[in-house]
Amino acid sequence: MKLNIKFHPLLFQASLAAGGVSLMAFNYLQFAIPHGKGPITLSDISWGSLTTAQDALYAPLVALMLVFTLLTFGLTVYFLYRLAGWLGEPGAYGTFKGNGQGNQNAGIFAIVASLAMTVNVIWAPFGFFVPQMAPHMQALMIPSLFVFGALLLVLLYLEVAFGRTWFAEGVDRTKFNFIWLLDAFAFGLVALTGSGIVAMAKNNVVADIAAVGTVFTLVVGAVVLLYKVAYLTYNHVKAGKLPADPILPAFFLIVPISCLFGLSAYRLTGFFEPRVESGLPGSPTALIAGSYVLAVVWGLGSVYLIRDYFTRYFVKSPFAPPQWGFV
Amino acid sequence: MYVYGFFYQYTALSALNYVSVYLAAIVYALVMSKFVTANRVVTEPATA
C-alpha cells in the first residue's frame, strides 16, 4: 500500500501501537508459561506436552505476536524513510515546530516513543522468535545503552525546543488537550528502555549508567507529567465541556503512561534494593500495583466520561490520530 | 476458601489479560482500517 497521506510525526503512533500489542502478547506468554530464567523464547514452549486447550490458547497468541512484531518493524522502517524525506523538505520541520497552537506540534514525541518501543520489541517479541538472541543478549546491552542515551538526548532536546513554542507569546494554552502528554508518554517509554537495560545487564558499569539515566528520565518525565495533568485537568474543569470528538481518545494516554512509569520504577527498586543498606522505604509491589490501579481507574473513568463518543461516534467516524490511543 | 479466592482471582486476571490482547488487536485493526480508508480518500480524485 502506498501512503498518500502527507507525512506527519503522529503516523509513528501506528508502529507504536503495533509494538504495544506485540508486547502484550509476549508478556502474557512470559508469565503464563513456565520457563527458565530470562525472557521466554519459542523453544521454551513444548508444544507436544501441552493440552489441546493450551494449544488453542497459546498458538493464536504466538501468531498474533508474529504479525504485530513484523508490523512494528515494517512500519518503523517505512516511517523512518518518510521522516528522512520530511526533514529534507525545506521549511517542513520549522513550520511544524512553530505551530504550538492547540499543542498541534506535540505529535513530534510520537517518533521518540515509537523508536523506544521498537527497542523493547527487539528485546522481547523478536527475541522470542529468534532464540539465538538469548545467549547473545549481553552483547546487545552496550549498543542498547547507546540507543537509550541517544533517545534520551533527542527527547530532552525536543522537550526544550518544543516546550518554548508552547509558552510563546500568543499561544492560547487553554485550548491544549491531552495529546499534550505525548512527551510524558515518550519519557515513559524511554524509561522503560533504560530500566530494561538495568534489569538485564550483567555488566555493572552498563547497569549503573542505565540506572542513573533511567532515574533522570523518570524524574524529568514525572515533573512534566504532573504539571501537565494538573494544568489540563484544571482547564478542562474550568471550560466545563469536553474537547471536540476527534480529540477525546487522548484521555486514555494516562493509562499507558501510568503503567510505564510504574514498571520502570519497579525495575529500578529491584536494582537499588540490594545496594541500599537500610533498604528502600515503601513497598515496590505497592508501587507497581498502585500504578496499575491508577491506570485501570483512569481508563474506566475515561470510558464513562466519553461514553457518548463510543455509542454515537467512534464506529462511523473518520480516522483521527488520537484513536491510536485506544490501543 | 482462601486458596479458592486466590485461584479465582488469578484466573480472572489471567483471563482478563488474555482477552485484552485480542481486544487491543481488534481495536488496532479497526483504527488501521479507518487509516487505510482515509489514505484511499486522499488518493482518489474528487469526482463531484
Shape of chain B: rod-shaped
The figure for the number of domains of chain B is 1
Main sheet specs of chain A: none
Sheet/helix structural class of chain B = mainly alpha
Shape category of chain A: globular
Question: Please, could you describe this protein's structure?
Answer:
The complex is a heterodimer of chains A (327) and B (48). Chain A has 327 residues and is mainly alpha-helical. Chain A has one domain. Chain A contains ten helices and no strands. In chain A, helix 2 packs antiparallel against helix 4 and helix 8 packs antiparallel against helix 9. The longest helix of chain A has 37 residues. Chain A starts with 11 loop residues before the first helix and ends in a 13-residue tail after the last helix. By secondary structure, chain B is mostly helical. Chain B has one domain. Chain B is rod-shaped, with a radius of gyration of 21 Å. The N terminus of chain B is likely disordered. The interface between A and B is medium-sized, with 26 and 20 residues.
